[in-house]
Amino acid sequence: MISTRARALGRRSATWAAVAVLGASTALVGASPAMAAPADITEGSLNWGFKASFRTYVSGGNGNPPIAASNGASINADGTFAFPSTGGSYDAETGETNATYGGTVVFSYPAHMFTITLANPTVAVTGGTAVLKADVELESTAFPPVEVTQATVATLTTSESNLVAGADGITGTDLAATLTEAGASAFNGFYAAGEILDPVSFTAATSGGVDPGVPGVTVTPATGVDPAGATITVAGSGFDPAANNAAGIYVSFGPKVDQHWTNAGVLQVTKWVSSTNEPTAARDRMNPDGSFNTTLPISARYTDGNGNAVDCTVTQCYVITFAARGSADRSQDTFTPVSFAAPAGGGDASQQIAATVLAGGPLTLSVAGSSVTLPAVANGAVTSGALNAATVSDLRGTNAGWSLVGQSGDFTAAGDAVIAGNNLGWAPSASAVDDPLVGATGTVTPGAVAEPGAGLGTARALCTSAAGASAGSFTCGAQLNLGVPASATPGDYTATLTLTLS
């Protein structure tokens, strides 16, 4: 990865953002002149989407609405969330930051028996380590409830290019986010610790309005690129989204030539990046803090728009940024070199293998038996036995998640004797079935224990699998526990326990 800067470092921008998760990271860079004491944060914002696959999963549910933002938080056009600054402090000498943000986001999926509330994120940076804290509340009839205040929910990996500290504040852009153990616990195991979350950005400024930053670009990969063709990632920061009447910039690839801003015919590919663009194959969006993240498809050899052959293994080529629409403003110019891998000796041959995977596979449920006989028991005691194992197979190819719930009717015996269905409880268990064809094995979570007396007269989860990790086959079982009231009439009782997969 290569990072370049357009000119000497000046004041740093700190007026945008996106985050709710931070953690172990490299030392802060670009620290500005020392300040006598921490200053109050007066503005900023934080943007974060938690996890795109989770948003897709919840959005397909029956919440009303499935996802809602309130108390100052809002939903961005791409489905991520924006949280406004509520204050905090920043020390320009040490980089120590405690930036607080307000707002609430609620994920609701009644059919899968949960509501998750995420609120009031805080970004804390101390000694080069950045963490995100947040209030999280889980309400469910299938899982134990969770309520935590300012728990450290995730870590962020930082670098010189994506975390910049200045005299007037600090900015983090597209920070890689990883779920912590505390975060996994707060979300009750929907995802395991170590799960990669959506990237995060944030800003925290200590004065109203700051100068634009110094444009800089990071290209990944920037060396050893496949000469036959590859897609590279271009991350920019410090650009001015308001410059030239907010016309934005062009992000291009090709050799460096005179008056490159008017000689675009020599370039292989160009993408227009501005604050007003909706992302397409030819356009991308610049964030309010002057950062962006986009991709370019490139190859070592091409014919340019003037009909000339260009070979980037012979002529040095660059990712080039410059003000859009032929502007004479050169303050947005950067040149980041890209090199290609040398051709290997010998030769090779290839064959294309094609296969069609049919859409719409099944989500199926099978049970090992149709009846369970519990041992005889006296009044006032509990009798136990094993539920016939249930197997769930998710072959839909969508990883959309599923839930298996159970509910029991009342137990009845001759002479109209009744034992309420709630007297039947269970202790669920669940495991994934080893299947070498699955690829990435999915995960399954057993439901909460239901005690006799507060048991299966209402629907309870036997096992669930969250979106993004539900493909494969899983075995779900339970120990059944029937509590017999002291007033129960002696006799042979039966009830129907129904398992429903959705």
Number of strands: 35
Q: Which percent bin holds the helix content?
A: under 10%
Q: Strands across the major sheet, in which order?
A: 3-6-7-9-10-11-13-14
Alpha carbon gap, first and last residue? 45 Å
> Structurally, how many domains make up the residues?
3
Give a quick account of the main beta sheet: strands, pairing sense, barrel closure: 8 strands, antiparallel, barrel
Strand percentage: 35-45%
Which structural class do you get from the secondary structure elements?
mainly beta
* Subunit organisation of the chains: single chain
| Average of the residue pLDDT scores | 84
User: Residue ranges: pLDDT <50 for 5 or more in a row?
Assistant: 1-36
Task: Tell me the Rg in angstroms.
Answer: 29 Å
- Number of helical stretches of at least 4 residues: 3
Dominant shape: elongated
Question: What can be said about this structure in brief?
Answer:
By secondary structure, the chain is mostly beta strands.
Salient structural properties:
mainly beta, elongated, five-stranded mixed sheet, 3 helices, single chain, Immunoglobulin-like, 3 domains, 35 strands
SSE order and pairing:
Blueprint: E1 2-5, E2 39-40, E3 43-48, H1 52-59, E4 67-70, E5 74-75, E6 81-90, E7 97-101, E8 104-109, E9 114-126, E10 129-140, E11 146-157, E12 163-166, E13 169-179, H2 181-186, E14 196-205, E15 216-220, E16 230-237, H3 243-246, E17 249-255, E18 269-274, E19 283-285, E20 292-298, E21 301-303, E22 309-311, E23 317-323, E24 334-338, E25 363-367, E26 382-386, E27 390-394, E28 402-408, E29 411-413, E30 417-419, E31 424-432, E32 445-446, E33 460-465, E34 472-483, E35 497-501
Parallel strand pairs: 18-19
Antiparallel strand pairs: 1-15, 2-6, 3-6, 3-14, 4-8, 5-6, 6-7, 7-9, 8-9, 9-10, 10-11, 11-13, 12-13, 13-14, 15-16, 16-20, 17-18, 17-23, 21-22, 23-24, 25-27, 26-34, 27-34, 28-33, 28-35, 29-30, 31-34, 32-33
